[in-house]
Write a structure and sequence with these properties.
GO terms for molecular function: peptidase activity. One of its GO terms (biological process) is proteolysis. This is Clp protease N-terminal domain-containing protein. This protein is an all-alpha fold and 187 residues long. The protein is built from 10 helices and no strands. The protein has a single domain, classed as Clp, N-terminal domain (Double Clp-N motif, Orthogonal Bundle). The radius of gyration is 17 Å and the shape is globular.
Length: 187
């Protein structure tokens, strides 16, 4: 599949691996793909994010993803649902971190030392990359670009889609910016 990726899409994947390594994650997940996309410039995906006014929200997105990681990967919707049942996730995180250290609830825990430095791709990242292939095929695009990875992130239920939507980036708004179909307005 990677032979169909554009240079920009390959750089997003490589950047996701770097993001996972920097975070000490055992595996590359969908959140790392989003963080890598945030660092892009001069590509179709980055153009779409700028057109939607997303550029000024990059730090807010990074903070939201970090907070999600601290909550063991629970989305805000899941956290709110648990609160409705009387479960205070923030309190649980604080107690666990008090006993075991900051970030101890992060999905996958901290990475072990690996001689190869290799980080496998988690199910979420694999699902996003497969969805990017489908997004390109649906549009009859011959190559998979970083814009297809971005579109896939908005389609897959989970934290990246929630964080993007919270900042006005949805599948519909991206489609309008990337392929026409009306005015380019956020969310």
């Amino acid at each position: 599949m990677f032979e169909r990726f554009t240079k920009e899409a390959r750089e997003v994947v490589a950047g996701a691996v770097e993001q996972a390594e920097a975070a000490g994650a055992k595996r590359v997940d969908a959140e790392h793909l989003l963080l890598s996309l945030l660092d892009r410039e001069g590509s179709r995906g980055s153009f779409a994010l700028v057109a939607l006014g997303f550029a000024e929200h990059k730090e807010s997105v990074r903070r939201a993803l970090e907070e999600t990681r601290r909550r063991a990967g629970l989305s805000q919707a899941e956290t709110d649902a648990l609160a409705g049942l009387g479960i205070d996730v923030t309190d649980i995180v604080a107690r666990v971190e008090e006993a075991h250290g900051a970030g101890s609830m992060a999905p996958g825990g901290l990475a072990e030392d690996r001689k190869s430095g290799h980080r496998p791709f988690g199910k979420g990242a694999k699902d996003v990359l497969a969805a990017a292939l489908r997004a390109a095929a649906t549009r009859r695009d011959r190559r998979i670009g970083d814009e297809h990875i971005l579109l896939a992130l908005t389609l897959r239920p989970g934290v990246p889609a929630e964080v993007l939507a919270d900042h006005g980036v949805t599948y519909d708004s991206l489609t309008r910016v990337l392929y026409g179909a009306g005015e380019a307005t956020a969310g």
